[in-house]
Amino acid sequence: MANAVSKTAYYTLGCRVADARKPRPLCGDTFAARFMNDEAKQVWERFKSFTQPNASNAARHQIIDTLVQEELDKQPQARVVVLGAGFDTRAYRLRGGRWLEIDDASIITQKDTSLPAAEAKNPLERITIDFATESLAARLAPYRDSRRTHIILEGVLMYLTQAQRRDMLAVLRDVFPQHVVYCDLMRATFQNKYSRDLYAVLTDMGAFFHDMTDTPEAVFLEAGYTPASATSVPLRSAELAGQRVPAFILRHLLRPVRDGYRIWKFERT
């Protein structure tokens, strides 16, 4: 992931900061504001008018929170790897887990300054990687573990080519033979019809989606993963906000919207 993609972490951060300030937050990430520096505020200014996508961004975070917490309630000492972690604060908010965050050095340095790992209520380690020049396999090799591992890929896969996605999954299968992946997958038709304006701002920042398709889950199925769940981000956003009529319409009448952007949970055993 290039530096321009890393900067999109400020956008998702801004979504969670704005959400936490609402009377009825969808995600409620009260730690996110710790990272809201001047650069983050400048990026957020470009995105804050995208009301519905921003709410969906907070909802996708909450969906993954819930899925991971369900697993940690059963196995509190499980390892959780957040790849392309951005300003993720789950190690501070969720109950349980031994956490490993991986991202660009500029993000990890800021995280260490604004929210030190020692303050997390769960064991947390952070490691840096230059995704463009360093080997993910080499960086993860010291953490090789045959136990069931939970891997969060949030806001990551759309910025990778299909070949890069396959290579990443091959590394994960080698390092963590038994693992679960939590990721957001967007269909090309959904992006073209409902995310065009938002994507225009992202591309202006130098962040581009690659190899979008209407079957984004295929790369996982071809690699031998089993789908455990697929949760609609737009529908869950409406449900969390108590929007009964929009939720009903999404659930029953607008399947392309409902299924166009989902959080998937894939098992690999």
UniProtKB/TrEMBL annotation:
Keywords: Methyltransferase, Transferase. Pfam families: LCM (PF04072). GO terms for biological process: methylation. InterPro entries: Ppm1/Ppm2/Tcmp, SAM-dependent_MTases_sf. One of its GO terms (molecular function) is methyltransferase activity. The keyword Acyltransferase does not apply. This is Class I SAM-dependent methyltransferase. The lineage of its organism: Bacteria, Pseudomonadati, Myxococcota, Myxococcia, Myxococcales.
